Every structure is written in C-alpha cells, then in structure tokens.
Amino acid sequence: MYDSFMIQADSLKNDVVNGETVGFQFIVRLANYRGIYLSLASGFYVSVDGVEYGEDVQTLEINGKAPRTMAEIARAGFEHWDLQTKAILHIRKPGGLEKGRHDIGYMPATLDGYGYNAHDEEWVTNPPKPGTRGGGKTHHICMFDLELQE
Amino acid sequence: MAIKRGVSLYSYQQEEWFGRWTWRDQLREVALNLDGADGIEIISEATIPQYPYPSEAFIDEFNTEMARWGLQATTLDAFPDPLQFRRDHVMNDAEMAERLKIDLRLAKKLGMKNIRVLGNTIDSVKLALPLAEELDITISQEIHFPSPIKRDPNSQRYNKIMDILEYIEKTGTKHYGFQPDFGVFRTAPSDVYLGYYFRMAGYEEYAEHVKAVMEAFKCMSYEDLVEWAKKTYPKVFNGGWADGELRPASAAPEELKLIAPYIYCVHGKFFHMMEMPDRPGEYEDLAVDSEGAIRVLKEIGYEGYIDSEYEGQRSQQDRGEAYLASEIEEVRRHQKMLKRLIEEA
Fold first, then answer.
1. What is the domain extent for residue B243?
2. What is the pLDDT of residues B160-196, one digit of tens each?
3. Which end of chain A is more exposed for a tag (fewer CB within 10 A), N or C?
4. Tell me, what's the ipTM?
C-alpha cells in the first residue's frame, strides 16, 4: 500500500544543527487507511545505499512537537497520527549523506490491529524488528531513488 | 421499502490520503453522482479530524452538510488496537469497552445509527452495550473474510459469529448484531491483487497468468489449486500474502438467513468493476458474488443499507501516479451494479 508514495520524493536532505551536519531526514507517511495512535509506531526500516539505520538513531518529528525518540513515541498512547499528517523522520549520522542520488529502502513498522493476537504480550516489550513484518498495509521493504536536496 | 444504497468513505481512502478530497467532497459525490444512493458510512479515525476529540465546529459542520445533501448517516467503523498502551500493558476488555464507548458517543453526535466492530471481544462489547442501548445505536460485528457464518460441525475452529448469535437470542438485545461483508462470498481471486503480487515477484507481463489463476480457482479444489499455483508460479505463491488470494469463499449467501433479523448494515466489498461482456454500460466484479448476496438479502426482507466498500486501490499504488485506480469511477460503477441487482426481479 502506497508503495511508491510513503516517502515524499523531494524531502531527502541533510540535518544541520548549529552549522554541523548531524544526520539526514525525509518526510514519511502512514501506510494504512485510518491513521493510528502514535504509540503504535514501533520504528522504521531505513537503509541508504545498502546501509541500515536502526531505531537507536531514529527520531520522529510529528504533530508540531520537537523530534522524539522511538521510546518516547511508544508512550504516546493518547496522541493520534492522522492519515494526512506528514512526519519528518530524522536519522542520526554525523556528516550526513553525500550529494547526489541515493537508494533508500523503507518500511514503517506499526502495530495497529483489529483484535487480540497470541503475540500481544511479547510485543508490549519486544515488538518485531522493523523490516521483518508488515507495517500497516505494506508488507515489504519499498525502494526509493531520491536526490539529496540542498 | 427496498434495500437502500450507501457508500463507506473507506472507498475514497486514496483521495483522502493524497489530500485531494475532503469528507465534504465525498459527501457531495454521493449525493450528486450515484443515482439515489444516500447512505454515508465513515471510518472513525480517518474521517473525524482530531479524533477522538473533534471540535464542536466539526460536529456541526458534518451534520449540516449531511442535511444539506439529504444524506443518511449509516455506520461508524471503530477499531480496538490492543497495543495502544504499548510499553505498559495489552489493552484489557474493560479498556476496549471504554474505547468503544468513546466511538459510540461520537457516532451519536454524528447521527450514526450503527457501529461496526471487528476484532472487539464479545465481553468488551457486552460492557459497552448499556451505553449503546441508551444512545439507541446498534453494535454490529462485521463478518469479514475469512470469517465463516455457520458453525462447521467438523471444525474445532472458534466461531465468534454463532456465539454472538446465541447471546443475542438468549438476551433479546436489539443493539447487538451483524454487518456482513460481501468479501466472504468470493468467487475468484481479485485480478488487481493478483497483478500486484505478480509485479512484486518481478513479472512485467502477467495478464495471462492472472487469468490462468482465476480460471484454475474455478475448477480446482483448494488443495489442488495451492499445489498447482506453487508449482507453476513459485516466486509468487511462496507462503506469503499472495497465497491468501487462493483461499475459497468463507461463507455462502444462503447463510445470511441464519442471522437475518440481526443484520444492521452490509458492506458491499469490491475490488475491480469491469464492464459486462454481454451488457455494455453495466458492470460486475468477478471476485465477489454480489448477485447471490443481494438475492438472499431480498428474500429475507432486508431493508437496510448496502454501503459500497472499494478495496482495489491499494494494490495499484506501487507504480506511481499514472497507474493509480480511480476510486470515484469504481464506486460509480459499483453503485450502478447495486442498483441493477436491487431492482432486478
């Protein structure tokens, strides 16, 4: 679902803080039809030119608030990620990305569900690693060929 | 009285996701372009801004627009999300009921007569039932593929539908019932979904293969079909999501008779409307037995709504803008089919 639209095509750029390039960012969208309570976002599979970037270097900027770690997002059980809301996914990588085009692999990991499942208790503390299981209604890692914006 | 036609705004999810159409545009489309359809079903989280606590201004505006176009609010679709309180605990039945009560109150404010639930436990629904009775809103268990309707005496599988039926008949409640989804009456795998899975497996040309799978579905047992498909297309059917397309119907239209008095709304699920070869200007979905389902609904005297629920768009979002499906056109065709099937003797 939304395989070729989940990342906004013109949104890849480096993150610069106080003149220092600390990482990169791009704009992401949900792959479902209803939105989710924000706590249900458990991370994002991200790879750039074959290198994976895990949840420990990810922060999500959404709903007008400063970027939050995935541990903070997990506790946002009463805040909603609306269907049309664009969020900025920041990846910490000192020096950022080089100029030019990059192959980005991407799949959101969200835990929205219709009812109880046998794995629920396990997933409270240990949700599946992003990229190993469907995120919303997208069930595989999608590839994007994006140009780094100035 | 006859069966009435409506649209679940689920059908326009892609227009909404891209921000091209708001709920106002969707209401106008239903009112003006669907030849007498007047029912509106909404998706709680998607349709309601600032869900679950929308502004009074939105509530007023929604009700005003509905009245302006002469539309009827049919159903609000609700969801439980057992992992909402992640990093703490799995939602329990009481919490699931509280979330449903929030949706019941929202439904009341928006003039909805019915709430659709799917994965909510029976115990959680029982806890919300007194509020549903007070607000006079029915709670309908969706019967969604691959759910059966009747109990299979040879199967040990839990049958939630029959358990709910027993509860309704034992208590006499007028506020707990069913919302069957036509997707359970499947007659073939959907061509648009098969196309997607063939593309994911690297096929560039696959129209003939899609046709072959749809034909094989009709003339083979499920076991033979799975064996043939895995052997013929090992990259497509390999234990992943594509295999689900091979599954047979989970219920027959006749089974609707078992739950007849308790059907409060119906999902007219569909995936791809095609022009009928022998009837130009008329449409059908080869994957769903809408005709059989409507015939039985007429036999049992159902007079509620069938809400179009289009789901073909999401299997066509992998190739960029030019290949996106037109939800607007698909719903128009589906409504034309519903009208034909409802009015035909």
1. 188-248
2. 999 999 999 999 999 999 999 999 999 999 999 999 9
3. C
4. 0.92
